[in-house]
């Protein structure tokens, strides 16, 4: 029997103790980086051990640190996968300007540009629902976003923080009894979505982010861990372009972000790389998401062994058929989302098995790892999140037996 392995997309629920300890840290003079304390470091190290042990107890095959080093000061947080990097990069500054509600930017054929967050097409089509606090739609509390006001670089603080992540996670792996794991890191394309008040050129700003992120990727890989590149910009950007671009223009725009990932990964072994693609993770209609069939061939151009993508939520579950038409190279593995962060309903293990079997019958069970659509931490209640992971593991066992 070929066992179908299990993992998840990254973020896991933080413990109340970790959230409280993080929220209690004093903020430094730059307004971005909270001051470290010995007490906080101790709480964080123990929390990483606990979350790795919880994954082992449930039966997750390939764990991570829950992204606990990507800190959250509250139980609900949709943006820590991105905002964590603000602590690690020099050249960023809180300017006092509200970039989130900036004037809308308009695109044109051959000149694709991202608009402001409130001008996203899904948000404007369903404006009444988004503005109704009883609708169930939530994007989480938005952090204060900095702007690049000078040359950006991966800072000494960044090197210390990624080293702390690695040390905590490797200690937890050894203590709990895992022989492998992964750490998540931001993509250059996603980093470059903050406001640029220095470079004045989108391509130059993207190039700068390639140089920023490379040291983090290399540090994780050098520690013998797998690097997961978190990159919603590949798919989510499509909703943030007004008016809607042609598929051809969007893919040309996006290929630059794919190239940026590959350049940042130049010194990281392919077998130690996995790439996570998602459509943004907020709890909303998502009617303006680009179809996966347009992105799958481009996804395979990324220099990774493992490809993680949403496949469980109701906007994208049907797209498992894409792999009937797109040939997966023999040395690659798909990591589809089999349980979703977008619903509080816990998927039945038999449904999990059915979803896994669809992929396994196309590419082979040895080239499928069951995962989550996106991070569960900060998006659904911890009790539900852990129940979903338990169902994922049980369903993978059923599918392995059937196959």
Are there runs of 5+ residues with pLDDT below 50, and where? none
Mean pLDDT: 93
Largest sheet report: 7 strands, parallel
**Spatial order of the strands in the main sheet?**
1-10-9-8-7-6-4
| CATH class categorisation | Alpha Beta
CATH architecture: Alpha-Beta Barrel
Structural class: alpha/beta
Q: Count the DSSP helices.
A: 14
- What is the strand tally? 10
End-to-end gap: 8 Å
β-sheet strand percentage? 5-15%
Remind me, CATH topology? TIM Barrel
The backbone outline, from C-alpha atoms, is globular
Please write the string of helix (H) and strand (E) elements: EHHHEHHEHEHEHEHHEHEHEHEH
Share of helix among residues? 25-40%
The count of domains is 1
What report would you give on this structure?
InterPro entries: Met_Synth_C/arc (IPR002629), UROD/MetE-like_sf (IPR038071). It is a single chain. This protein has helices at residues 16-23, 38-58, 80-83, 121-125, 127-130, 156-176, 188-191, 202-222, 233-236, 247-264, 292-299, 322-325, 349-363, 382-402; strands at 5-6, 89-93, 147-154, 182-186, 195-196, 226-230, 273-277, 306-309, 333-339, 369-372. With 403 residues, it is α/β, with parallel strands linked by helices. The chain has a single domain (13-402), classed as TIM Barrel (Alpha-Beta Barrel), CATH 3.20.20.210. The strands form 2 sheets. The chain has a 7-stranded parallel sheet with strand order 1-10-9-8-7-6-4. Helix 10 (247-264) packs parallel to helix 11 (292-299) and helix 13 crosses helix 14 (382-402). The protein is globular, with a radius of gyration of 20 Å. The model has no long low-confidence stretch (mean pLDDT 93).
